[in-house]
Amino acid sequence: MLTPFGKVSKELGRKLIHETIVLDIKSMTPILSVQPFNQDNYEYAVKVKTLNVKNHDDLQRMVGYQVRKFNACRKCLKCESLCRFNAISITGGTYHIDEEKCRRCKMCVTAKYLDGGCLMDKYLKTKEKE
After folding, report:
1. pTM of the predicted model as reported, rounded to 2 decimal places
2. Which residues are within 8 A (CB) of 113 and not within 5 positions of it... i.e. 6 or more apart?
3. Angle at 67 between CA 30 and CA 117, to 5 degrees
4. Mind listing the pLDDT tens digit for each residue in 88-126?
């Protein structure tokens, strides 16, 4: 799920709190600290901390969107068809990103993608306005 942001490195995270560190793909500098926790009605809940980046808000927004997308995927196949590298697949009802194919272009987590018609995002926006 965190593959579009960089290299996922579980071995660098603090094992006691099940932390995962995401490294910038070019500089190999830690940019995200992700810690899972339990929250009712969510398959995957995380605490995300941005590290060593200039624009924390943009990165937080993109990670937040990715987590929402993972938890509330409607299997519309929009992200699968959007990925130019065929890295995203929804098979057996599961959203998956192939780490070998992903080029970290972040197209799947950008505002341009959201405007393009993710059914999950439209559904959540509709629910929030009610």
Report:
1. 0.76
2. 78, 79, 82, 107
3. 120
4. 988 887 888 999 999 998 888 877 665 555 656 555 555
